[in-house]
Design a protein that fits this description.
Layout: H1 2-52, E1 58-62, E2 66-67, E3 76-77, H2 87-93, E4 101-106, H3 119-127, E5 133-135, H4 143-148, E6 157-159, H5 167-170, E7 181-185, H6 191-200, E8 205-209, E9 215-216
Parallel strand pairs: 4-5, 5-6, 6-7, 7-8
Antiparallel strand pairs: 1-4, 2-3, 8-9
Length: 217
């Protein structure tokens, strides 16, 4: 019996080894692809954040600092603490491998209203994927500027108060179906433009109006 069964066991063992090696190769390939995606995202975020940091009016929000799940008219800060991940690994790879930039305030206060945002800044905002909070309050953002960032469809909060945005600019926001809070106070939008946008974004809370007369839809 032993002599008859031994030859059949060896091919089975070899087949199992081939299957195991093939599975390991597939696993390593998937891990390599995953790490390449993570590394590319981290490098791109580092490039954009570094460029945006050249402007003193830019303030960047990170996911470990702010809790958007709490809802409310403004994002809620989390308890202060270091970024996630082992400190030695963050020092080696960089914080951007462990955190995501989810918000950007690029406002035009202190005499900057006529200079923010520039075309270069708009391109950086367009490329910073996954933004959930964005403010161009008191800036020179235009209707065409909103068109440049229309692909930021994960936005939850958007401030464009005290700007020249008109109904033409609202047309570029209709694809932002995750938008929950939109602020357009002291802009050029009309009731008709807001009504049209509300049909595209029924779940959004839109604040607008002029001269202290706030309207909410």
């Amino acid at each position: 019996m032993t002599a008859a069964t031994t030859p059949t066991l060896r091919p089975a063992r070899r087949n199992w080894l081939r299957l195991s090696l093939r599975s390991l190769l597939v696993l390593f390939t998937l891990l390599a692809v995953w790490f390449a995606i993570v590394a590319n995202r981290a490098r791109e975020q580092r490039r954009i954040v570094s460029a945006l940091s050249q402007w003193p009016e830019a303030m960047i929000l990170y996911d470990y600092e702010w809790d958007l799940s709490a809802g409310g008219e403004i994002p809620k800060p989390r308890p202060l603490g270091p970024p996630p991940g082992p400190a030695w690994l963050r020092n080696w790879l960089g914080d951007e491998y462990f955190v995501s930039a989810i918000g950007l305030f690029l406002t035009g206060g202190d005499g900057q209203a006529g200079r923010v945002p520039t075309q270069e800044q708009l391109e950086l905002v367009r490329d910073l994927r996954g933004l959930k909070v964005l403010s161009f309050e008191t800036s020179s953002i235009t209707d065409s500027g909103l068109a440049a960032i229309a692909d930021q469809t994960e936005l939850v909060y958007l401030w464009v108060d005290d700007t020249a945005i008109s109904d033409a600019g609202l047309a570029h926001l209709g694809r932002m179906h995750n938008l929950k809070y939109l602020y357009l106070r002291n802009s050029r939008v009309t009731d008709a433009g807001i009504d049209a946008l509300k049909r595209d974004l029924p779940g959004a809370r839109i604040c607008y109006g002029k001269d202290g007369q706030q309207k909410i839809k």
